[in-house]
Amino acid sequence: MNSGALKWRCATTCRSCRNSHATTEPRGPNMDKVTVEAIKDAVWKLEKQKACDLVQRGLAEGLDPVAMLQQGVIAGLQVVGEKFGAREYFLAELVMGGKVSEPCIELITPHLPPSTEGRAGTVVIGAVTGDLHTIGYGLVSTQLELNGFKVHKIGINIPSMQFIEKAQEFGADIIGLSAFLVTTIPYCPEVIAYLQDMGLRDRYKVIIGGTETTAAKAEAMDADGWALNAVSAVPLCRRLVNKPLAANAPKDWWANEKRLAGAGQQGAAR
After folding, report:
1. In this structure, are 74 and 178 located in the same domain?
2. Which residues pair with 265 in a beta bridge?
3. CATH code: domain of residue 190
């Protein structure tokens, strides 16, 4: 057996080596930051098992679940999106990013603190006809729930009329349409057209999101809003249900979204 193989065997079988290896990671006050950063790295590097293990360890050690979600999982997914936009990652990696993040979010969600501001509003959200991606709108849902919204995730490949039926069933204030692909975007204005034909356009606010959506596209189809990412979907939805925004929130939302779109950024609230 060569020395490399012996070293590997020792590191994986000897208790003393395992204990030594286990204590190489930082402990104490800086553990939170290191673990959150490690979660972020595991997500964007598409290391599913490692990401889940880190989340479980963080929860066991009492790390802040909000930080693990926002600075770990969501931040990692944002890197995946950036790499996709830069053509460093392709569709397969983008989809894998969602598969890595979903179990992490499921682990964290039960530990998130309830909103202290009361129920902010009710949202029905899903992916439009032909769209099979849950990556982004799942994150939007989590952010909205964390901020006091009641969210009903109705799934993928949803017919236009079903969005309206579910909005009526759940008494929604907002209908969220996720369109990940260029070919699925036309189904967003179809939902809006159905609402108009049924005399319900004033009853519901409609927002869109997805990697191929922009503020300009949302405005062109007479949607009520578009969010750059999951985090920015929260102040958007608060505005739409007439809840107060933070003091530093833009007064002209569309102007701000157009500025971002003009800078070449695309929506990620899918």
Report:
1. no
2. none
3. 3.40.50.280
Pairing of strands 225-226, 149-153: unpaired
Note the pLDDT tens digit of each residue in 40-91: 999 999 999 999 999 999 999 999 998 998 899 988 887 887 887 788 988 7
CA distances from 244 to 67, 224, 235, 238 (A): 24, 17, 9, 7
Is residue 133 within 8 A of residue 125, CB to CB? The reply is no
Q: What is the pTM of this model?
A: 0.59
Instruction: Give the domain range for residue 74.
Output: 23-111
CATH number where 88 lies: 1.10.1240.10
- Kindly report the backbone phi and psi dihedral angles of residue 237, in degrees, each rounded to the nearest multiple of 5, phi listed first: -65, -35
d(Cα 76, Cα 38) in Å, to the nearest integer? 10
How far is Cα 258 from Cα 255, in angstroms, rounded to an integer? 5
Domain contains 192 = yes
Q: Are 225 and 253 in contact, with CB atoms under 8 Å apart?
A: yes
The whole-angstrom separation of Cα 82 and Cα 171 is 36
